[in-house]
Write a structure and sequence with these properties.
Largest sheet: 4 strands, antiparallel
Number of helices: 20
Strand order of the largest sheet: 1-2-3-4
Mean pLDDT: 86
Oligomer: single chain
Number of strands: 4
Structural class: mainly alpha
Radius of gyration: 35 Å
């Protein structure tokens, strides 16, 4: 049976077809005016610079059903548009837009198979998605071209991707082409760092895998900025944090060192921010060089990573605990008990562990509550 969309699609190339659907979707096709001849209509179609007029028969009414197979020839013979493209080449995007309107009007009121209606809807949806992708790409290209603190539209993209990621793979393919052109341009890379950070903050699940291949491709200074920003995002994120950790392992040691030093300087009063970064990124140089400044639970974690240093570290733990015990206020035992529990669970009850327990028993007999918890 007759489908206006299938009919016109067979008469034009894909680019003209998509442009016509875009015009229709944007609401630029007017309500038609009936002409003097039966089953003929006049449409006005608004475009960027002007308004054009399309004359067409309502084919499913003008043609006998046994002549539907001649509908294509009928379109070429009878349909016209006032635009210059039609005068030179024939069927134009304005005619496509009018035929989309006709299909939408008559799809439920004349006999045609359901597939043609479905095809129309699929084509309109596909065109709308292409339009959306084009706008997204333009938005990101603009963000790469000038400095800004306004990422509202990028956040909107990220939220949309969260719900419909599968249908937007063509967008990621086109975006990859844009990003390839950014690599090597220091200023645009710097803006890219902010785009990556903002998009991952809003929707890490959709963006992380796409961005990951560019993390180590950008300039060293921009890599440092990026990993600092990503660590801050990690630090305030509560959902699926373990999946994010792999990101911090891949950079070179010099990048890790610089990121650590920057975090250390910025969060000097909040040491766990940069210490946890050292563990997550496997940048252990500072930890090894400063073990005397670390508390027993951090030392236990280091001993797990470096078994060859275990004896040295357990001695440090033992000495710290002995010093604590001499200044421990009565009743304030929770921290000490927690350290002993972690020590035995992670490293076992070594000779140094037992020596520490015995020190408490010998030197703090009056702290019965503590001794009972250690037993």
């Amino acid at each position: 049976m007759l489908s206006y969309q299938n009919l016109v699609k067979s008469l034009v190339d894909e680019a003209i077809y998509k442009r016509g659907l875009k015009i229709y979707l944007e609401g630029f096709v007017s309500t038609p005016r009936n002409m003097i001849l039966d089953n003929w209509r006049l449409y006005s179609v608004r475009d960027v610079h002007d308004v054009y007029f399309v004359k067409t028969p309502v084919l499913h009414l003008a043609l006998a059903s046994d002549k539907f197979d001649l509908a294509g020839s009928s379109v070429e013979e009878s349909v016209s548009c006032s635009c210059s493209y039609f005068l030179e080449y024939g069927i134009c995007k304005h005619i496509v837009a009018v035929f989309a309107d006709l299909d939408n009007e008559f799809s439920k009121s004349y006999s045609q198979n359901e597939a043609s209606t479905e095809n129309l809807m699929e084509a309109i949806f596909a065109s709308d998605t292409v339009k959306k992708h084009r706008k997204w790409l333009e938005t990101i290209d603009q963000l790469l071209s000038r400095d800004t603190t306004n990422y509202y539209y990028l956040d909107e993209i990220s939220r949309t991707l969260k719900n419909q990621e599968d249908i937007h793979q063509p967008f990621f393919k086109e975006l990859a082409k844009i990003i390839e052109g950014v690599i090597g341009d220091y200023s645009r890379e710097k803006r890219l760092v902010r785009i990556i950070s903002e998009s991952i903050l809003v929707n890490r699940d959709s963006w992380l895998d796409f961005w990951r291949e560019y993390f180590t491709a950008i300039d060293v200074d921009n890599q440092i900025r990026l990993y600092i920003s990503l660590w801050k995002i990690y630090w305030v994120t509560s959902k699926n944090k373990e999946e994010f950790l792999e990101v911090f392992i891949s950079p070179d040691q010099c990048i890790k060192e610089n990121v650590f030093n920057e975090l250390h300087g910025e969060f000097i009063e909040d040491k766990m921010v940069w210490i946890e970064y050292a563990f997550a990124s496997r940048y252990y140089d500072w930890l090894i060089d400063n073990m005397d400044r670390l508390d027993p639970k951090l030392l236990i974690r280091i001993a797990e990573i470096f078994p060859e240093k275990r004896e040295e570290i357990e001695i440090k733990i033992m000495n710290q605990i002995k010093q604590w015990s001499d200044f421990l206020p009565s009743g304030d035992y929770e921290m000490v008990v927690d350290v002993f529990k972690t020590w035995s669970q992670k490293l076992g009850k070594s000779d140094y562990y037992m020596d520490s327990i015995n020190y408490f028993r010998a030197n703090h007999r009056l702290k019965k509550k503590l001794l009972s918890q250690l037993d």
